[in-house]
Amino acid sequence: MTTQKADITEDELDEMLNVVNTTYGYDFSDYSRASMQRRVSRFMDTAGYKTAVDLTFQLKKDRSVFDYFLQRITVNVTEMFRDPAFYKVIRQEVLPVLASYPIIKIWHAGCSSGEEVFSMAILLSEAGLLKRSRIYATDVNPYNVEKAKKGILPLNVMKEYNENYIQSGGQNDFASYYTSLYNNAIIRKDLRENILFSQHNLVTDQAFNEFQIILCRNVMIYFNRRLQNRVIHLFNDSLSTFGYLALGIKESLLFTDLQNKFEVVSKDEKVFRRIK
Amino acid sequence: MAGNNTNIELITIGGSAGSLPVVLKIIKSLPASFKVPIVIVIHRQRNVSSELVKILNNSSASKKIIEPDDKETIGDSCIYLAPQNYHLLIEKDRTFSLDYSEAVLFSRPSIDVTFESAARVYKKKLAAVLLTGANSDGTTGLSTVVHRGGIAVAQDPSTAEYPAMPLSAVRNVKELTVLSPEGIVKFLAALMSNGK
Ligand SMILES: C[S@@+](CC[C@H](N)C(=O)[O-])C[C@H]1O[C@@H](n2cnc3c(N)ncnc32)[C@H](O)[C@@H]1O
Predict the structure, then answer these.
(1) Of B107, B112, B137, B143, catalytic
(2) If you placed Cys at A143, which of A71, A167, B41, B93 could pair as Cys (CB 3.0 to 4.6 Å)?
(3) How far apart are alpha carbons A88 and A94 in whole angstroms?
(4) What's this model's pTM, rounded to 2 decimal places?
């Protein structure tokens, strides 16, 4: 009844990721195996590859196969004001503190198509801080980055985002933040003015600035503990003292060796602050 | 049934509509000294901040139910509940991975996803139980469990408030053990005394 998924062994996956790394410089070897295995077998099903060996061969010899693979292999699902209670904490506890900085530098690492970034821009705008914010939003997936730059979302999900927005403590007319055009919602231009979207790979790229807050939500769940630890080091190097680090609500600093460099701002919403 | 005399090291339970009372019954009847960890996946309504953990915890004073964080290690004598809005996967080193990818059969968490990934890791040391529900999630998962040598159990559809989900398994999974809720309780107790 249900479709049979392509099966792929541990060794085949190793070989495939190895080829991808040596040929194109994208290192997925420290991604969570269970989820990577699912993604690859899903990719094989939708793109019509019968065996892992076949896909690995095509990946090696055809750049366009890799481009499509890269586009589909990361999990890009995102929402505006996802986890409303999280945004409430940002609104009530974090922004009032950030308000004391003349320039507020923000990094969204793993921003996908930008929904989280637009949500933040709305909060900043409502707090009167957007004009002096510099928002850097990065993702490994170039397809996501291009999409995010356009600032166009499907109109049919805005109703749900509106509910999230209200739950997060939003009091304005959510529809005033975008213009509707056919089936699209275009995020207002002035909200996007101070956002710079670009490609950045957390696995291989370096720190590039110092931030007052870094958001990296639901990205590191796709990494194993070793890679998570490395990325937390990268964030630590990229945060100003007393800078904030916001993770997804099911992510934790417990498995990193830097946990004592951070204090907990919100235990449930996984907001931390660098104290050393 | 397959693998009856091998030691079970993980039990997964999947339920949808109507499954809460059955899950409660199972948890309450677990022997106090149970060791084998249990991973429960229940479909819940999205974004309704869920009271499920509280309900489960209130009803089983001595046993605590945990919604695991990403990369948490699976511990003996622990009962885990898949957090809402994420798929719950299991890694080879017996830690959890959470995954925010697309819903499967309209479900996230998906029972299939958890059963399949548990089966890859635990193989014949896994027992998976599918309870009442109104869709067909879990069938593919149970097939994978059997395929990897584990034990697949479904609630007897005639005892299910919503029979569709176990019925789908009965129709499609070979080597399936079909039991009433009481039967499931006894069966798990027996596994527990054999296991770990
Ligand atoms: C599930 S989305 C999370 C989006 C958003 N932060 C949220 O919580 O809604 C995960 C994102 O992480 C990105 N990602 C995965 N690996 C990455 C890496 N090595 N460097 C940067 N971004 C990465 C993916 O491309 C994807 O857009």
Answers:
(1) B137
(2) A71
(3) 9
(4) 0.93
